[in-house]
Amino acid sequence: MNHFKVTIIGFIAAVVVSFYGGDKVCAQEVRIQGDLVSSYVWRGFYQTGVSFQPTLGFGIGDFSLTAWGSTDFDGTSSSEGAAAKEIDLTAAYTFGDSGLTLSVASLWWAGQGANKYFNFKSHETAHHFEAGLAYTLPLEKLPLSIAWYTMFAGADKNDKGGQNYSSYVELNYPFNIKSVDLNATCGFLPYEAGVGVYRVPNRGFAVTNLGLKATKDIKVTDKFAVPIFAQAIWNPRMEDAHLVFGITLKP
User: Fold this and answer.
1) pLDDT tens digits, residue range 67-110?
2) Handedness of CA 239, 209, 132, 10 (dihedral sign)
3) Are strands 180-189 and 206-219 parallel, antiparallel or unpaired?
4) Are 70 and 235 in contact (CB under 8 A)?
């Protein structure tokens, strides 16, 4: 068993023990929800059609561990056992009230039937390991956030077998109009990184994700409401556009 695989298994075991193994340490927050979306668009790039996307998250103080997935209802090759399936695991730490969050994630989207999820060999794995750093301005009237993500290991390889170090930067600005929550997004690839995970030859700076998302709660009873959202997305680099509708289910 290689050292990288041992590290991953050890990390998972340590997290499980921290949540469940002691009397003095317990999960302070548990997050369960699922989104049903008309199409799955990631960082401005179309992935697949109608999908269900569950989330399971745990939090202890400033540390969180989140599992997020996406499974489509058909897939381009579902009859061949290759329907779209993604599982992302993210560990994140927020530095108190500083507005700064550091994260490490494993992104896996090899698809149904690909198997070999636990293969972590550098030139064989389907995992994309990504580090992220996010910061939100400490201004109530200007809650702008910026995040930088870089793939540092795993399947994001160039044509010579080395790491692409593909990176993505995203700015988000939330605001509200007449009880509707809105969020404006601008995402871009900051530098050349080959074809890589973003499916296009990135010859330098490229804007790939301009979006506006609106969310509204639909009241069902006095104690239960269902959030719905619509999101318009433009990808200038690909000259593409998307309109996504979604429903969120959570306790």
Assistant:
1) 999 999 865 555 555 688 999 999 999 998 899 999 999 999 98
2) negative
3) antiparallel
4) no
